[in-house]
């Protein structure tokens, strides 16, 4: 017997955390009965459905998406807004995939989608410190002191962010804006935006360039591709 959310993640429905939300909000039935208790355990002979679709184990797939603006980084959206999963479905990707981590509605860039629950949980766990590089257009003229603060770490909710890499790419003295490249090894809620706010430079636009060893070479916004076997191995060895 295993916890229901773990079984759902292994079947490619969503990450364990997202599966817990699906359970809690009444999307899941076990043997015909709606289950909302997170501690529920199921066995091989239990019949599990998510939104009326029976659970079955799918082949593990891995996709890299260049997320456009105005799309939700989720498998489901209660408000009916377009999601990153919808982009893949439009191209007839049949497996039930879900995003590894999140990018904000107005943030663009690299996003991994998979039905490999174990890899997704590993990549999102803080101790593995997957490097993520962002390019941010921010208000104001960023100084060397600002960059030093970002590199050392800034205070957010009473805790200091870990050391980061920060590089000023360009400034526009007329419009009083700057473009900064920032590499972090964490993934806290709105972290990049809040780091820039902490040094007095609110984000205007944000784009994620890299995720671990992966980049967006050859992908236009809204385009995606399957990962190569060697790329999957690189992620698993991270």
Automatic annotation (TrEMBL):
PROSITE patterns registered for this protein in UniProt: PSI_RSU (PS01149), S4 (PS50889)
Pfam hit, one: S4
Domain RNA-binding S4 as annotated: residue spans: 2-65
SMART domains: S4
Enzyme class: isomerase
A molecular-function term among this protein's GO annotations: isomerase activity
UniProt KW RNA-binding keyword: yes
Keywords linked to the UniProt accession: Isomerase, RNA-binding
EC number: 5.4.99.-
NCBIfam families: pseudouridine synthase
Family designation: Belongs to the pseudouridine synthase RsuA family.
Name of the protein described by the UniProt record: Pseudouridine synthase
């Amino acid at each position: 017997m295993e916890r229901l959310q773990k079984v759902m993640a292994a079947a490619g429905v969503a990450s364990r955390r997202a599966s817990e939300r699906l359970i809690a909000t009444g999307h899941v039935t076990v043997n015909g009965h709606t289950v909302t208790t997170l501690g529920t355990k199921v066995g091989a002979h239990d019949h599990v459905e998510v939104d009326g679709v029976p659970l079955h184990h799918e082949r593990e797939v891995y996709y890299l998406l260049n997320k456009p603006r105005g799309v939700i980084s989720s498998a489901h959206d209660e408000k009916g807004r377009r999601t990153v999963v919808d982009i893949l479905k439009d191209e007839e990707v049949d497996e039930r995939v879900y995003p590894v981590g999140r990018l904000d509605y107005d943030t663009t860039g690299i996003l991994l989608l998979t039905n490999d629950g174990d890899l997704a949980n590993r990549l999102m766990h803080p101790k593995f410190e997957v490097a993520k590089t962002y390019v941010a257009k921010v208000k104001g003229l960023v100084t060397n002191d600002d960059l030093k603060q970002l590199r050392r770490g800034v205070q957010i909710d009473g805790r200091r962010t870990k050391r980061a890499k920060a590089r000023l790419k360009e400034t526009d003295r007329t419009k009083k804006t700057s473009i900064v490249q920032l590499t972090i090894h964490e993934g806290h809620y709105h972290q990049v935006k809040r780091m820039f706010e902490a040094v007095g430079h609110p984000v205007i636009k944000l784009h994620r360039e890299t995720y671990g060893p992966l980049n967006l070479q050859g992908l236009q916004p809204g385009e995606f591709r399957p990962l190569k076997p060697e790329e999957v191995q690189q992620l698993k060895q991270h």
